[in-house]
């Protein structure tokens, strides 16, 4: 596809300024207007489902069912959740009761960060990011991936038709356009090109949310349901041709169990693709020839044994679903995230060796374990770190309402989906309203001239520490409050009864 739809470089700063001006106009302070725009984001997708299915098929060769499963359902859940709850989530909230400060009406309220830049990965649209940024009251500039030109072009066409043209914009392009975008000051950034984005964000002290993926391991207990594990793991590795950030990548299993698991995977493979995967309408393509060549090179260099698959057609962006057994931790296939339909079997002598291998690598986005034994699962999850810890399943944790998706360390930071994504796109602005009479009965000790009796009052602000660990039996039960503040609390309670302080302050 031609890059004629790329945004002109000179237009990018003007788009940024237009979004900033629109944000400062205060349009999105109206919760009803936010709800209207959230609903419109949902209908942008709903009214054009077939066009997005076709665009995903053109860009990735993705089967329609995978687009419906990964994109549509999750987006509709999030749109409905945000629409139903944004009024509640944006309300001011009282701080926990504290006798010393209660009368000052300490509160906090989620407020928007400003103009948000959302840089999308090629393997998923940015509907969820868009909806939650709107819920938080932000203006949004979307930068779809140039590696998915069909979807990017569709966004550029549809966003102005469905959403406020001043507040919400699309910038399309490759490296020059992305570089120009990153030179501008934003109030929040989201994207996958982590180091480039983080370095650019640091120049403007811009907060970021990064979803990075990772080399996600699976730990197998020989007592697991072998057919179930094989079916779920191979599905997770081959859906979207393995181009899913939560996809399982390598399986750690006992050496004497490897052949049993191989046979189960071969059975599942034949059931998934009875006439072969290349001509199957249930198997995706790699996003670009360059990525296809990269994956092919890794397969060619492995010292493991290819059980099935292993073939690739760079011109067709095709890599066959591939199983490689007897892979060692230092194999080329273990060096980094493959992001393709290649599943690795790494034999180990015991679970401790499996945990050592996991912990020798960057923290993954997810760790999976298959076992009927809770003690086995606990050992895996309690002795590792990851964004998610999932038992007897893969990938679908992202679709569970109420659960956030996010990484740790090299797999990213920040959260996606649900209320947690709303929190990403807002900040808690705190407030106090302290009446003047408080200084006369409680807080006057803070003003000069300082005197010994004022120091005593000041120290009384602090509660007693917990018992010293070596001397618990001699612990004091003192509370650290003092009569004047007790009086303040009584007065505060009376004022609250009379309707002060107002909850709207």
TrEMBL record:
Molecular function terms from GO: aldehyde dehydrogenase (NAD+) activity
Gene Ontology, cellular component aspect: cytoplasm
Entry keyword annotation includes Membrane: yes
GO biological process, one term: aldehyde metabolic process
UniProt-annotated stretches for the region Disordered: 456-476
Domain Aldehyde dehydrogenase residue range list: 10-429
Active site: 211, 245
Keywords: Membrane, NAD, Oxidoreductase, Transmembrane, Transmembrane helix
Highest taxon of the lineage: Eukaryota
Chain segments annotated as transmembrane: 114-135
Family per similarity comment: Belongs to the aldehyde dehydrogenase family.
Listed PANTHER family: ALDEHYDE DEHYDROGENASE, ALDEHYDE DEHYDROGENASE TYPE III, ISOFORM Q
Stated name of the protein: Aldehyde dehydrogenase
Organism whose genome encodes this protein: Trametes cubensis
């Amino acid at each position: 596809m031609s890059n004629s739809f790329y945004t002109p470089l000179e237009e990018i700063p003007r788009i940024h300024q237009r979004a900033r001006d629109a944000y400062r106009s205060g349009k999105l302070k109206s919760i009803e207007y936010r709800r209207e725009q959230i609903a419109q984001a949902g209908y942008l997708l709903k009214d054009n489902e077939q066009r997005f299915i076709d665009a995903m098929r053109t860009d990735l060769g993705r089967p329609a069912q995978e687009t419906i499963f990964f994109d549509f359902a999750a987006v509709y859940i999030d749109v409905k959740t945000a629409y139903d709850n944004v009024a509640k989530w944006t309300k001011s909230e009282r701080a926990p009761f504290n006798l010393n400060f209660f009368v000052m009406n300490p509160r906090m309220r989620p407020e928007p960060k400003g103009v948000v830049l959302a840089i999308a990965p090629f393997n998923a649209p940015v509907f969820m990011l868009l909806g939650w940024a709107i819920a938080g009251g932000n203006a949004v500039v979307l930068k779809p991936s140039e590696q998915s030109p069909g979807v990017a072009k569709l966004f550029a066409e549809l966003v102005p038709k469905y959403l406020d043209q001043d507040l919400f914009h699309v910038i399309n392009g490759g490296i020059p356009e992305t570089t120009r975008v990153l030179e501008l000051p934003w109030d929040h950034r989201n994207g996958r090109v982590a180091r480039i984005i983080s370095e650019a964000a640091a120049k403007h002290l811009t907060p970021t949310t990064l979803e990075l993926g990772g080399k996600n391991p699976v730990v197998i207990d020989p007592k697991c349901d072998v057919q179930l594990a094989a079916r779920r793991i191979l599905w997770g590795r081959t859906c979207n041709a393995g181009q899913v950030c939560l996809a399982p990548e390598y399986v750690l299993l006992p050496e004497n169990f490897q052949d049993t698991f191989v046979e189960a995977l071969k059975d599942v493979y034949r059931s998934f693709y009875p006439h072969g995967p290349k001509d199957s309408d249930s198997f995706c393509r790699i996003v670009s020839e360059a990525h296809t060549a990269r994956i092919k090179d890794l397969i060619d260099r492995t010292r493991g044994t290819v059980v099935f698959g292993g073939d690739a057609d760079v011109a067709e962006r095709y890599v066959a679903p591939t199983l490689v057994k007897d892979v060692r931790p230092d194999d080329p296939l273990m060096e980094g995230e493959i992001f393709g339909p290649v599943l690795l079997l790494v034999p180990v002598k015991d679970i401790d060796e499996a945990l050592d291998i996991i912990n020798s690598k960057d923290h993954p986005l997810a760790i999976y374990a298959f076992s009927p034994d809770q003690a086995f699962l606990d050992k895996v999850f309690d002795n590792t770190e990851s964004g998610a810890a999932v038992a007897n399943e893969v990938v679908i944790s992202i679709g569970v309402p109420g659960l956030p998706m996010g990484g740790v360390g090299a797999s990213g930071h920040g959260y996606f989906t649900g209320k947690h994504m709303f929190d990403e796109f807002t900040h808690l602005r705190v407030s106090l309203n302290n009446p003047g009479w408080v200084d006369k009965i409680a807080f006057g000790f803070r003003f000069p001239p300082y005197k010994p009796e004022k120091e005593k009052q000041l120290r009384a602000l602090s509660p007693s520490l917990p018992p010293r660990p070596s001397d618990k039996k001699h612990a004091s039960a003192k509370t650290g409050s003092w009569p004047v503040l007790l009086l303040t609390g009584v007065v505060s309670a009376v004022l609250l009864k009379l309707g002060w302080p107002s909850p709207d302050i």
